[in-house]
From TrEMBL:
This is Response regulator receiver protein. Keywords: DNA-binding, Phosphoprotein, Transcription, Transcription regulation, Two-component regulatory system. Signal peptide: none annotated. GO terms for cellular component: cytosol; protein-DNA complex. Pfam families: Response_reg. Residues 2-119 form the Response regulatory domain. GO terms for molecular function: phosphorelay response regulator activity; transcription cis-regulatory region binding. It comes from Paraglaciecola psychrophila 170. PANTHER family: REGULATOR OF RPOS (PTHR48111), TWO-COMPONENT RESPONSE REGULATOR ORR33 (PTHR48111:SF1). SMART domains: REC. The modification 4-aspartylphosphate is found at residue 52. GO terms for biological process: regulation of DNA-templated transcription.
Length: 226
């Protein structure tokens, strides 16, 4: 797990990195101020950030907002490590994008437990993000295929209006497109040919044909053709 430690105090960074290594987190990076932290985050794509609040040039509040923006839709846990103890300052840590905080001097056991908890949350978030991407890809693929099929059917088949008044049908797919098909054509002897098909096999054909050619109306439920 890549952890970025941001603190302008060298001793504090040393203590945090040492604690992380004791917990088995060996992939750690250090930044002595906010500007360095942002540039480093662009390169390493951290999975968790331990962030000080009061720093020169760019304070922790601003850094947190910038880091969250860089992370995009992926959950990036930011835990503030601060000497501030007033309620207003701690509430501000959460308002700017922080997910948790620990006051200095920090308790190693509590901080390690918070890191593990946020690591689990990030893992679940990444899984949900990947699943949403797959669903979005599948939905876009289905929409594209439906447009292709609609285009093929609209341009590949011709309609002879001479006998359409004698043909009445209802085609109701269960989804956008399901492959149910009805074709009709005149026969050389003056009758009509019908072709009824289901090319997907995923649903029962919902079709009712009425054939009328110099005869009383006769309805043929599709079950009579199967």
């Amino acid at each position: 797990m890549r952890i970025l430690v941001v603190d302008d105090d060298t001793l504090n960074r040393f203590l945090l990195v040492h604690m992380l290594e004791q917990q088995g987190y060996m992939d750690t990076f250090e930044a002595e101020d906010g500007a360095v932290a942002i540039e480093l985050a662009k390169r390493i794509n951290p999975e968790l950030v331990l962030l000080d609040v009061v720093m020169p040039c760019m304070g922790g509040y601003k850094v947190a907002t910038r880091l969250k923006k860089l992370a995009g839709d992926i959950y990036l846990p930011i835990i503030f490590i601060t000497a501030l103890e007033d309620d207003k300052s701690l509430a501000r840590c959460l308002e700017v994008g922080g997910d948790d905080f620990a006051t200095k001097p920090f308790d190693k056991v509590i901080l390690a437990a918070k890191i593990r908890a946020h690591a689990r949350t990030r893992l679940l978030n990444k899984k949900a993000y990947e699943q949403n991407k797959q669903l979005s890809f599948y939905r876009n693929s289905m929409e594209r295929e439906n447009k292709i099929v609609d285009h093929i059917f609209a341009n590949a088949l011709s309609v002879k209006k001479s006998f359409t008044p004698y043909l009445d049908y209802s085609l109701n797919p269960a989804s956008d497109f399901n492959g149910d098909l009805l074709l009709a054509s005149e026969s050389p002897t003056g009758g009509m040919y019908f072709l009824i098909g289901d090319f997907t096999g995923h649903c029962q054909l919902r079709l009712l044909v009425r054939y009328q050619y110099h005869k009383p109306s006769i309805r043929f439920p599709i079950k009579d053709f199967l």
